[in-house]
Amino acid sequence: MEAHGRREVHDAVVVGGGPVGMCFGILLALHGADVVVLEARPERLGHTRAIGIHPPGLRVLERAGVAGALVAQGVQIGEGVARSRASGRTEEIARLHFDPPVLAVPQWATEEALESRLAAIAPGALRRGVRAVRTEQTAGGAVVRCEDGTYAGRWVVAADGARSPLRSCLGVPTYGHPLRDAYLMGDFADATGDGALAVLHLEAAGIVESFPLPGGVRRWVAHLDEPAVDPSARDLAQIIAERTGAALDTSACTMLSAFTVMERLAARMVVGRVVLAGDAAHEVSPIGGQGMTLGWLDAEAFAPLIAAGLDRGGSSGGSGSGWSQLWVATERERLRAARAAARQARVNMTLGRALPPPLMAARNAAFRRLYGVPWLGGRTAARFTMQS
């Protein structure tokens, strides 16, 4: 229920204080907007969920003023290698070079850097423990009604996650469906000797992925035939040992998570004076790590338009067919990018599914031949790192 004691008015109200919402708030503040960022969680989570920052995302973070701090903390992944034991011994199937590299850094560190930057340029902008209930259009903008009051803005950004209550109350339709893939993921002390390599183990029972993290930690992700029920670090270690031969120290597991995959894309991203961003606009599989970067690219695209609308004034943030067409074109491009990311995520998941050993061996042989062609390897690397 909404409390009536608080009412604030700002240029822009950003709902959601995760990586996308805070980045959006920073970019708006850098454009001179009076911005408030509302976050339901009273404290920042300490889990290392999303870890991959692709080169286009790092470009946005550079504009936000946090890239340097994250690069200093993270691991730069310049190569990825695919291996397989389908032949009875571990063989290298393909090797891809990432130029620029992908940055691996725990999400809590990314959020910490963004929060610090937002506090430096817009003190007090982040409001924790504020839960948005709905949004409504007004003559001069939109209002966000929360459990503790009302926040009015000439623009509202809904970066409130895949189950976005703001998207729901606006009546924006979505399309998509749950996917049949399930995964078990955990962070362990790295005893592989693979250093900064990203490794894909293409095995008949399902793919196992591993990625380096700062502090001598490696993330392991295993594809499962069905969702894990009450899994343990020992369960994941056993799966990895059976498929790859790697031995993990279960006492050194710092995170464990089982998840299934949903694909959900919004039909629109702009409704009046409300802009949907991040998972509120496009929920894609985390396999491939494109979701967070996709949201930052939303912020990069829309923040300058919102700021220009504030400068132009007027109830519509500007007038003329050219201005309207610019918004339409930007929305169309971001929707296209979301569809492309969803397609790539589906490809990534298909690659990870179990195959009978003879088919796995045949596919590995085909990959070995294909990715021996330099231009094809370069093109694949660019696609995996969101540069094509």
Automatic annotation (TrEMBL):
Coiled coil regions, renumbered to chain: none
Keywords noted in UniProt: Membrane, Oxidoreductase, Transmembrane, Transmembrane helix
Keyword Nucleotidyltransferase: no
GO terms, molecular function: 3-(3-hydroxyphenyl)propionate hydroxylase activity; FAD binding
Stretches assigned to the FAD-binding domain: 11-311
GO BP: 3-(3-hydroxy)phenylpropionate catabolic process
Transmembrane segments: 12-33
InterPro entries found in the cross-reference section: FAD-bd, FAD/NAD-bd_sf, PheA/TfdB_FAD_monoxygenase
PANTHER family listed in its UniProt record: 3-(3-HYDROXY-PHENYL)PROPIONATE/3-HYDROXYCINNAMIC ACID HYDROXYLASE, FAD-BINDING MONOOXYGENASE
Protein name: FAD-dependent oxidoreductase
